From TrEMBL:
<keyword id="KW-0511">Multifunctional enzyme</keyword>
<feature type="binding site">
    <location>
        <position position="112"/>
    </location>
    <ligand>
        <name>CTP</name>
    </ligand>
</feature>
<keyword id="KW-0456">Lyase</keyword>
<protein>
    <recommendedName>
        <fullName>Coenzyme A biosynthesis bifunctional protein CoaBC</fullName>
        <ecNumber>4.1.1.36</ecNumber>
        <ecNumber>6.3.2.5</ecNumber>
    </recommendedName>
</protein>
<dbReference type="GO" id="GO:0004633">
    <property type="term" value="F:phosphopantothenoylcysteine decarboxylase activity"/>
</dbReference>
<feature type="domain" description="DNA/pantothenate metabolism flavoprotein C-terminal">
    <location>
        <begin position="10"/>
        <end position="219"/>
    </location>
</feature>
<feature type="binding site">
    <location>
        <begin position="129"/>
        <end position="132"/>
    </location>
    <ligand>
        <name>CTP</name>
    </ligand>
</feature>
<feature type="binding site">
    <location>
        <position position="149"/>
    </location>
    <ligand>
        <name>CTP</name>
    </ligand>
</feature>
<feature type="binding site">
    <location>
        <position position="163"/>
    </location>
    <ligand>
        <name>CTP</name>
    </ligand>
</feature>
<keyword id="KW-0460">Magnesium</keyword>
<comment type="function">
    <text>Catalyzes two steps in the biosynthesis of coenzyme A. In the first step cysteine is conjugated to 4'-phosphopantothenate to form 4-phosphopantothenoylcysteine, in the latter compound is decarboxylated to form 4'-phosphopantotheine.</text>
</comment>
<feature type="region of interest" description="Phosphopantothenate--cysteine ligase">
    <location>
        <begin position="15"/>
        <end position="226"/>
    </location>
</feature>
<comment type="pathway">
    <text>Cofactor biosynthesis; coenzyme A biosynthesis; CoA from (R)-pantothenate: step 3/5.</text>
</comment>
<feature type="binding site">
    <location>
        <position position="102"/>
    </location>
    <ligand>
        <name>CTP</name>
    </ligand>
</feature>
<keyword id="KW-0285">Flavoprotein</keyword>
<keyword id="KW-0479">Metal-binding</keyword>
<keyword id="KW-0436">Ligase</keyword>
Length: 226
């Protein structure tokens, strides 16, 4: 009915994916954000559903349609994303593809900030929770397989290796998001897969959908032989 078992390598598994940017409000009409489109994260959610997984996609604000067969939880801020991720656990596999804002405005006023003779207002920032590190470092209820992304503009592999150690995830998908690559917002991606054991695999540039299918196939292998 659902095809041969090897076509549904993730059936019976719950896969959690974060995707998109977060928006961090400054006042009721303004926010801090980044250029993430959510294309890579949404493609991973779609590929995992096609591979038979039950998928929860926690997404920041994107203009993409919901992937078919995926339970989508929409959030705005990093703190809301962390809450939604915690509510979606337990999961067998968690993939943190969101471009979470590292900082948010320290103060949020419910009135619009007005121009005035005193000039531009200071914009003090405070650090957001690290969702990936929070989940990967849990002692109880940690998904058995935790995958992070690393968005870098220089020394991609070295920075990604440092991240895997710092955050405690099992696998990192590192990509070069320099403006010249067109990865942020674009349809193609060139990634390196870096394992906790230091292993490194460089994939050729391909569509984000194809990156997603290959990654999901890889996760299916991990899930089959933990
Ligand atoms: N991440 C997260 N929560 C944050 C920041 C990042 O869950 N507050 C996750 C991202 O989803 C990604 C990984 O951490 O899977 C790495 O994100 P990245 O921005 O590349 O790394 P940072 O640790 O934020 O470091 P920096 O931005 O300084 O390179
Ligand atoms: Ca960051």
């Amino acid at each position: 009915l659902g095809g041969a078992p090897e076509e549904k390598p993730l059936s019976g598994r719950h896969l959690l994916v974060t995707s998109g940017p977060t928006h961090e409000p400054i006042d009721p009409v303004r926010y801090l954000a980044n250029r993430s489109s959510g294309k890579q994260g949404h493609a991973i959610a779609a590929a995992a559903a096609a591979a038979g997984a039950r998928v929860t996609l926690v997404s920041g604000p994107v203009t993409l349609p919901d992937p078919p067969g995926v339970a989508v939880v929409r959030v705005e801020t990093a703190r809301e994303m962390l809450e939604a991720v915690e509510a979606a656990l337990p999961a067998d596999i968690a993939v943190f593809a969101a471009a979470v804002a590292d900082w948010r405005p320290a103060a949020f006023g419910d009135q619009k900030i007005k121009k005035g003779p005193e000039g531009p207002p200071p914009l003090a920032l405070t650090e957001n929770p690290d969702i990936l590190a929070t989940i990967a470092r849990r002692t109880e209820g940690r998904p058995p397989l935790v995958v992070g992304f690393a968005a870098e503009t220089t020394d991609v592999i070295a920075h990604a290796r440092a991240k895997i150690a710092r955050k405690g995830c099992d696998l990192i998908v590192a990509n070069d998001v320099s403006a010249a690559t067109g990865v942020m917002g674009g349809d193609r991606n060139s990634v390196h897969l870096i394992g906790r054991d230091g292993s490194l695999e460089t994939w050729p540039t391909m569509g984000k959908d194809e990156v997603a299918r290959r990654l999901v196939a890889r996760l299916g292998q991990h899930a089959a032989s933990p």
